[in-house]
Design a protein that fits this description.
- This protein has 276 residues and is an alpha+beta fold.
- The chain folds into 3 domains: 82 residues, no CATH class; 130 residues, Trna Endonuclease, Chain: A, domain 1; 48 residues, no CATH class.
- Helices cover 48% and strands 15% of the residues.
- The protein is elongated.
C-alpha cells in the first residue's frame, strides 16, 4: 500500500517536541526581524524596499503563522511521545499486544527500539501495511523494520523475501520483521545466514519488559501470578484442621452468600469445610 505524503505538521510531529518548539522561535525571529535586517543591508534598491516592508511588520502575520505551525507540530509530538510511553509501560503479555491496533503496534515497536538506543524514523503510520514501517539508526548502521500485527496468520516467506529486496534497494545494514505471532518454517529457513532478524511476540514482549519502568515490571509479574485474596487467604497459625483428612485449612469466600468459611488446603482433592 502506498504511503500518503506527510504534511508539514506531521513532519514536525515526527521529531522530538523540543525541536519543533525551538524551531518555531527561530523561524519567528528570523522572519519577523532577520529578513528585514538582511534585506535592508543589500545594495539592491528593490531588495532594500522589501527589507523596509519587513522591518515595518509586513511579514509579521507570516512569522506568526510559521510559529503556530511549528508549535502545533511540537504539541502533536509531545502527545504522541506520551502515548508511546503509555503503550510500552502498560504491556503485560501477549494478549495486550494482540489487543492493540496496527498503528499502536508500530508505535510500541518504535518506542521499544528507541529505549534500546536506536534513533527512530517512522514511515509506516500512513497505512495498515506498507513495507518499511520504521527506519532505525545506530552506530552508523541503518536497519529497516516491518511490523506485522497479525493475530492469527503466521508471517510467510514471501514477506521475508520482499524485505530482503528492500534491504538491497535501500543499501541498509539489516532488516527486522516484528510480529505478534510467529513465522512459517520456510520463512525461518530463508532468513538463516542473512541480515534478517525475525522477532515474534514472545521476543518483543521480552524487549519491552527490559526497558519498562521497574514498577511496571512488578505489576506485570504480579498480574501473571495473581491470586484473589477474597477467595483464598493465608491461614493463621492457629487454623483448624480438616475434619475429613486432618490437613490444615485456609479461609475462603462463598461467592454466592459472601460468607467466609474454612476450606481444606488440599482442595479439590479434599472438600472438607468448617464454619468460621
Amino acid at each position: 500500500m502506498a504511503k500518503r505524503k506527510e504534511s508539514g505538521i506531521e513532519f514536525l510531529a515526527s521529531m522530538p517536541w523540543p525541536v519543533g518548539f525551538g524551531l518555531g522561535i527561530v523561524a519567528y525571529v528570523g522572519i519577523r526581524y532577520g529578513v528585514g535586517w538582511y534585506m535592508s543591508a543589500s545594495s539592491n534598491p528593490v531588495v532594500q524596499s522589501m527589507g523596509k516592508l519587513a522591518s515595518a511588520g509586513t511579514y509579521a502575520p507570516f512569522a506568526w503563522m510559521v510559529l503556530a505551525i511549528c508549535w502545533v507540530g511540537a504539541v502533536g509530538s509531545f502527545i504522541r511521545s506520551r502515548h508511546r510511553k503509555r503503550l510500552l509501560e502498560t504491556q503485560t503479555g501477549l494478549d495486550s499486544l494482540r489487543a492493540m491496533t496496527w498503528r499502536e503496534f508500530e508505535m510500541l515497536v518504535g518506542e521499544a527500539f528507541r529505549r534500546h538506543g536506536y534513533t527512530i524514523r517512522e514511515t509506516g503510520l500512513g497505512g495498515a501495511d506498507g513495507g518499511i514501517d520504521l527506519i532505525l539508526h545506530k552506530d552508523g548502521k541503518v536497519t529497516l523494520v516491518q511490523c506485522k500485527q497479525w493475530k492469527a496468520q503466521r508471517v510467510d516467506v514471501k514477506i521475508v523475501r520482499e524485505m530482503l529486496g528492500l534491504l538491497t534497494h535501500h543499501q541498509a545494514s539489516a532488516v527486522k520483521i516484528v510480529a505478534v505471532g510467529d513465522y512459517t518454517a520456510d520463512a525461518r529457513r530463508f532468513a538463516e545466514g542473512k541480515p534478517i532478524e525475525l522477532i515474534n511476540g514472545d521476543t518483543l514482549l521480552a524487549m519491552v519488559r527490559e526497558v519498562q519502568a521497574p514498577t511496571t515490571v512488578k505489576v506485570a509479574t504480579a498480574a501473571a501470578n495473581y491470586v484473589n485474596t477474597d477467595e483464598l487467604e493465608p491461614a493463621p497459625s492457629l487454623s483448624p484442621t480438616c475434619p475429613k483428612c486432618g490437613a490444615s485449612m485456609v479461609k475462603r469466600l462463598n461467592r454466592q452468600t459472601k460468607d467466609h468459611f474454612w476450606g481444606c488446603a488440599k482442595y479439590p482433592a479434599c472438600r472438607g469445610t468448617r464454619t468460621t
